Amino acid sequence: MTLGYLNLVLHAHLPYVRHPEREDRIEERWLFEALTETYIPLLQVFHGLLDDDVDFRVTLSLSPPLISMLADELLQNRYRRHMAKLIALCESEQTRTADDPARHGLAKEYQRRFEQVVQFFETYSGNILPAFAKLHQAGKLELITSAATHAFLPYVRTQAAIEAQIATAVDVFYTHIGVRPKGLWLPECAYDARVEDSLQRHGIRYFFTDTHGVTSAAPAPLFGTFAPVMTPTGLAAFARDEESSRQVWSSMDGYPGDYDYREYYRDIGFDLPEQDLQPFAHKEGIRLNTGIKYYRITGKTGEKALYDFRLAREKAATHAGNFLFNRTQQVAYAKSRMGRLPVVTAPYDAELFGHWWYEGPIFLDMLFRKMHYDQTELKSITPSEYLDMYDDFQLATLDFATWGRDGYGDVWLQGDNDWIYPALHDCEVQMTRLADTHVHPTSLVRRTLNQAARELMLAQSSDFAFIMDSKTTVNYAIERTKQHVNRFRHLCSMLDRNDVDVSYVTEAESLNPIFPNVDYRWFRANQNPPVALPDRHVVRVLLLSWEFRPMTVGGLARHVYDLSRHLIEQGCEVHVVTTAVDGYPMDEIVEGVHVHRVRAAQPDGGEFIHFVLQLNLAMLSRCRQMIEDEGYEFDVIHAHDWLVGEVACLLKQHYGIPLIATIHATEHGRNHGISTDVQRHIHHIEWRLTYEASEVIVCSTYMLHELMDVFALPGEKVHVIPNGVDRRLLETTIGHRTPDHAFEDRPIVLFIGRLVREKGVHVLLDAAPDILRDVPSARFVIVGQGPMQQALRDQSRQLGLGHCVEFWGFVDDDTRNDLLHRARVAVFPSLYEPFGIVALEAMASGVPVVASDVGGLSDIVCHEHNGLKAYVSDPASLSCQIKRLLSDPHLSRSLSTVAQQDLIHFDWRQIAAHTVYVYGCVVPKASAPEAPTA
């Protein structure tokens, strides 16, 4: 019988530290140490619990600065170098301690653990955010966020600046995690009633306070801290439980002080001579922690006993049992007086677990395993789950409170740091003035305003005031605060003089590239800034695409189908206008998407340009009917490629509806230049579409650069949002199976795609003879249709490949899926490829991939990590890579396994969420329609 719940909350945060100008800033090691000792060990524990089917719940707050640093390639690469040096130091230590078995064994164990950390890190290609997201999607980890730069919100002067902190935070979280945060960790648990409007606006359901933040509320809470209270605006406030905190946090009687645990303050970085610390030592001779610590706490003495990993693990298990017993006693006592199931809220800094308390991750692992296997009366729960259990929480008004010294705010405002607030408050006022003044800025002015917003928010970080109070790296905190304030003032001065120095702005952006989607308008005083993530209303989207399932010519139909139905999950109302298909209704609802089909008469001669003109006229007529006769009010037009460019631009101009364009490929790229009148006609439509669009979406960094070069588009107008893959659509229908005799156990080399020159099938056929010399049983299956089909058949015959090359033409989804699951290798030898969604589908089906090192395929396939790459238009290179996979099953399995793990980067939920963010760039809240009533 369940007596109550444990609401375990971990707050993961570090200040934004990134110094591209030099690699030896010791402050960057804050992130590296936390990755090695806290974030990755916690992920290893949580994923281990998930793999073992252990039921558990944890709430984890990922602050926007931490999210930004974890996703930063520069910091990822520096971490790799850091760990390589650390592992080399372990090897050196094993040599040094060869005659000391105890220390030698400790050094060897540290090396093993560091190597496991690196292996986990590389499993996710250096970005561990998807590892968190996977746990969130599994329902085990409820991810939430904090304010943009962890500003101490009660000391922020203006409501607009509070709004900017919350709006930016939600955007960063949404962009990287792909879902809206349900809760928000108020920095330093500092509650101020002014935050509630912004939290409500962005769909936040709950936050956390220190104990007295709730116990001192009016009226006094009937259930103390064993249940949340509801504020007058409808937000839930969970209060910290003092008893559970004391058992973990207390320096006197908390678990981390046990004598068998590792001594944090004895590190070989300070114990050993400098020459023994190479190559890890700092080049200026600064002493640093290495994470290699040979001693346990032992007692209040300078003499320390050697650390024992096994003994410490046993003690962590004992403490986990004690913690579980005490919490069970707590909830049993509370339940007898509440008449409902109580919840114990136990919040901690995540970095306590592993970094400060080395055995902390083991403690959590043991705690959840004991709860699961012992069938205890205490269960873990997330705040959202607990809020869903009851609908009659007590209403209360909260007062200002923090979890800082003495429960209030003197840590962040006292004699050593009070000088920062007059400067910050002046910057807030200036930022709002500029945001209100610049209504229609030029591209450069918008960049300058956005960078000013970044600098102000970075200066507001509570970490700098905290460091000044704690007397640690004080000079660094002062330096950073002054740098951001001064840079902000210089940017403002340039704007006021109407004389912006583009080189200064560019340098500032490169030094602090945090928050790429920041919007200066969030600082506007009228409290009607742009909606980053529409939560309180439905965004109605008019989506234009010439193809949509079941009409499938290329990857566009699949893309629009997947995107539209996932936009529905994000709360949008989507209307797709597309081409009619015989046997399908002109208007229907497909998985919540409104599909409107129009028929365009194919003119005599079958010229495609004429068909496109007819299609655009028919689409225009249907859209006008929907708007003028049927009363639809669309918030945004989303046009896909040039074939709907004319109707998209006309609708935008006539009705004033904001236009978003997704460019999947360009005529210039397909033909390696523009040389005919038809190509010039298509090229002009593409240019006009990108010009008229307020924002442009592309699927790869390759396409970003192509549009910037070909159409001279400013980079800030273009958003890179990859294509995605839905594994469910790749499952073969039960009972459907391509006949076995079609293959006779011969290894299949599979190509799927349109038969046009840019797909490079002719290169694969040229490579086939060399492949057959080494693997004579290979069979090449070509799936797809297109204008090159006959030429490719002729090429196959000329090369004498008729016995082993099969052209299957167009196949249904089940046949395609079955072929993917049977294939030994999937090959995509494209000459031009904006993205290559079929490569994702192959990866999702478990077949190893060989692809040309070109375009978007280069974004998807990482050579010898999740697939193999071949040189473009090089049959010998292609043959070499295909033969490697046909002859090495271990390599094939390894690449396939990693590829499937990497697919988390291409999850349609994240893609749809990012697309909704782009909509929010152009959809003002005031014009958004009301949510439809039942």
From TrEMBL:
<dbReference type="InterPro" id="IPR001296">
    <property type="entry name" value="Glyco_trans_1"/>
</dbReference>
<comment type="similarity">
    <text>Belongs to the glycosyl hydrolase 57 family.</text>
</comment>
<feature type="domain" description="Glycoside hydrolase family 57 N-terminal">
    <location>
        <begin position="8"/>
        <end position="388"/>
    </location>
</feature>
<dbReference type="InterPro" id="IPR040042">
    <property type="entry name" value="Branching_enz_MT3115-like"/>
</dbReference>
<protein>
    <submittedName>
        <fullName>DUF1957 domain-containing protein</fullName>
    </submittedName>
</protein>
<dbReference type="InterPro" id="IPR011330">
    <property type="entry name" value="Glyco_hydro/deAcase_b/a-brl"/>
</dbReference>
<dbReference type="Pfam" id="PF09210">
    <property type="entry name" value="BE_C"/>
</dbReference>
<feature type="domain" description="Glycosyl transferase family 1">
    <location>
        <begin position="743"/>
        <end position="900"/>
    </location>
</feature>
<dbReference type="Pfam" id="PF13439">
    <property type="entry name" value="Glyco_transf_4"/>
</dbReference>
<feature type="domain" description="1,4-alpha-glucan branching enzyme C-terminal">
    <location>
        <begin position="424"/>
        <end position="523"/>
    </location>
</feature>
<dbReference type="InterPro" id="IPR027291">
    <property type="entry name" value="Glyco_hydro_38_N_sf"/>
</dbReference>
<dbReference type="InterPro" id="IPR028995">
    <property type="entry name" value="Glyco_hydro_57/38_cen_sf"/>
</dbReference>
<dbReference type="Pfam" id="PF03065">
    <property type="entry name" value="Glyco_hydro_57"/>
</dbReference>
<dbReference type="InterPro" id="IPR004300">
    <property type="entry name" value="Glyco_hydro_57_N"/>
</dbReference>
<dbReference type="InterPro" id="IPR015293">
    <property type="entry name" value="BE_C"/>
</dbReference>
<dbReference type="InterPro" id="IPR037090">
    <property type="entry name" value="57_glycoside_trans_central"/>
</dbReference>
<dbReference type="InterPro" id="IPR028098">
    <property type="entry name" value="Glyco_trans_4-like_N"/>
</dbReference>
<keyword id="KW-0119">Carbohydrate metabolism</keyword>
<feature type="domain" description="Glycosyltransferase subfamily 4-like N-terminal">
    <location>
        <begin position="553"/>
        <end position="727"/>
    </location>
</feature>
<dbReference type="Pfam" id="PF00534">
    <property type="entry name" value="Glycos_transf_1"/>
</dbReference>
